[in-house]
UniProtKB/TrEMBL annotation:
Protein's recorded name: HGA4
Keywords associated with the record: Glycoprotein, Glycosyltransferase, Membrane, Transferase, Transmembrane, Transmembrane helix
CC per GO annotation: Golgi membrane
A GO molecular function held by the record: pentosyltransferase activity
Gene: LOC100282802
Topology versus the membrane: Single-pass type II membrane protein
Length: 528
């Protein structure tokens, strides 16, 4: 009920949206009518919940990270900074492939395996897939009705399959040999899913739809042209990619949750393929999969697997919790950090400990924002930090993930104004300190759920500083008796356009007298 109170724009972010620029997108968002907005709110007794339910979802479209390059929000094009010539096919360097290209050449790999009792016994007794002769009983489980009240986009549909699975990208179909016909199929024996790990009505029309087609026998499925001894994951990188927050929440963490236990023995098939995106995150994709990513949009093979997923498991943004089916291995954000450190060879697992005889200064990294939510007196803040004993580096989040990951990992304290740049906390050593400056406008929910709680979950020390009405440029735009100051929740009640226009566009100038104790707290956290 809450989500319907806030209508999303109905225009899908399809190819036509490909040449939109960020500022224009922001403007368009600004123009979106907050349809029927008041109705749900007035009716609801749980005002705050309704508001946040919706804007948690709406917020994300705007959470810009890299300012100028965040113009890629709905773009299917690489940002200028990461354009690599000759990426038309996006092919990564070819590594040894495990699949057998010619099924006839492999006597252990019958072309049209049928499920037999003998084979099932083999499956039951086998501890490892050996030589590809094992046939698994057909099994499909789809998880698609999960609901997370606070995070309506957090339960995307995902199907897990085992058996004889034949993926034909050019038909956008996964044939599933399923003699019993059992499973979540429609009357045509089909199950259609848009495999993007964010259940977001605004985005989904732009996500390639993939069909799982249940067929009664292998003869009814296309012949395998390429066999894989490892499971497959078919997923989309459409959406708000190239916003670092969304790269992580909508693709990389879901991929981690879905595949980390396979230790690289998994084949990734990517729909809505973006060569620059795959290139940008190659170190992570390589850590998750030992095989070249396959572009689902440009592939004529019929790939055969014995297990796999269509879609990915996902949890709340940068917050992940144990779950019996979605996260059965109880991966935590600390595990994700460890994974990132290994993928990028980041050296530091722990911050510098002060108070020892070492004379090394604690390192502070300040992430600078150049578009909205600028820290106007950054030089003053930086000077105070130096005076307090920090060695300060100021940097804008870099398009080169590895370079920036190294910078962040070298820091003991990361300081930034609320924004997707704070996502870089994932590269901090465990135990380091995150300082979030929260702009004016009752941003508690976003500050906590997007960055504060994740910091705690990653076992970082977390310090948050809420600016007062004296420290925001909103005071130059609105009189003090305006609801912007008297009742900021009224901004939220108007829905996303107002939040984007008012709250997200302010700059801040922190009061040094007020801010100093928070810096001392950060310093103090490092003494423990
Ligand atoms: C995951 O956590 C649950 C409790 O939340 C526990 O019952 C289960 O045994 C854990 N699983 C693993 C693999 O540690
Ligand atoms: C800065 O904060 C201090 C402590 O809250 C306060 O006394 C002072 O008036 C503030 N300065 C400005 C310019 O608002």
């Amino acid at each position: 009920m809450a989500s319907t109170a806030y209508s999303r724009p109905s225009k899908p972010p399809g190819p036509a949206a490909g040449d939109r620029s960020g500022p224009r997108l922001a403007k368009e968002l600004g123009r979106i009518e907050p349809k029927k907005l008041g109705i749900g709110l007035v009716a609801g007794c749980c005002f705050a919940l309704l508001t946040y339910l919706s804007f948690a979802r709406l917020f994300a479209i705007y959470s810009p990270v890299f300012d100028s390059s965040s113009s890629m929000v709905l773009k299917n094009m690489p940002p200028a900074t990461t354009t690599v010539p000759g990426t038309a096919t996006g092919a990564l360097p070819v590594e040894e492939q495990k699949e057998v290209r010619d099924p006839e050449a492999d006597p252990h790999m019958p072309n049209l395996p049928e499920v037999t009792e003998k084979d099932q016994q083999e499956e039951a007794t086998a501890t490892k897939p050996a030589g590809g002769a094992i046939i698994t009983e057909a099994k499909i489980t789809c998880d698609e009705n999960g609901v997370d009240e606070g995070f309506p986009y957090a339960r995307p549909p995902v199907c897990e399959l085992a058996g004889d699975i034949r993926v034909s990208p050019k038909e956008k179909t996964m044939y599933f040999v399923n003699p019993s016909g059992a499973g979540p199929f429609d009357s045509n024996g089909e199950k259609k899913i848009r495999p993007f790990a964010r259940k977001d009505d605004f985005l989904l029309p732009g996500v390639v739809e993939v069909t799982i087609k249940s067929v009664s026998s292998a003869a009814a499925a296309p012949r395998c042209t390429r066999r894989h001894d490892v499971p497959v994951v078919v997923f989309s990188v459409a959406g708000y990619t190239d916003n670092f927050f969304h790269d992580n929440t909508d693709v990389l963490i879901p991929l981690f949750l879905t595949t980390a236990h396979l230790q690289g023995e998994v084949q990734l098939l990517v729909t809505n393929y973006k060569p620059w995106w795959v290139r940008k995150f190659t170190p992570l994709l390589r850590k998750l999969s030992n095989y070249d990513v396959i572009d689902f949009g440009k592939d004529d093979e019929v790939h055969c697997f014995r297990a796999g997923h269509l879609g990915m498991y996902r949890d709340r943004d940068l917050i992940i919790s144990p779950h019996p089916t979605r996260n059965p291995r109880n991966y935590s954000m600390v595990d994700y950090n460890r994974f990132l450190r290994r993928a990028f060879n980041l050296p530091r697992d722990a911050p510098a400990v002060l108070g020892e005889e070492t004379s090394a200064k604690p390192q502070m990294l300040i992430i600078e924002r150049k578009g909205t939510r600028k820290l106007l007196n950054l030089p003053e803040v930086s000077a105070l930090c130096e005076a307090l004993g920090f060695a300060v580096t100021v940097a804008e989040a870099d398009a080169d993930v590895r370079v920036f990951a190294e910078k962040v990992n070298a820091a003991d304290v990361l300081l930034a104004v609320h924004g997707a740049g704070l996502t870089n906390q994932i590269f901090l050593p465990t135990g380091a300190v995150l300082v979030q400056i929260v702009p004016w406008g009752k941003m508690d929910w976003m500050a906590t759920n997007f960055y504060g709680q994740p910091a705690r979950d990653m076992r970082l020390r977390y310090v948050e500083y809420y600016v007062s009405e004296e420290e925001t440029t909103l005071k130059d735009k609105y009189p003090r008796d305006h609801y912007v100051f008297k009742d900021p929740m009224h901004i939220h009640a108007q829905g996303w356009p107002a939040i984007a226009e008012i709250i997200m566009k302010q700059d801040v100038m922190v009061n040094m007298t007020r801010f100093k104790p928070f810096l001392l707290q950060a310093l103090n956290e490092l003494q423990d």
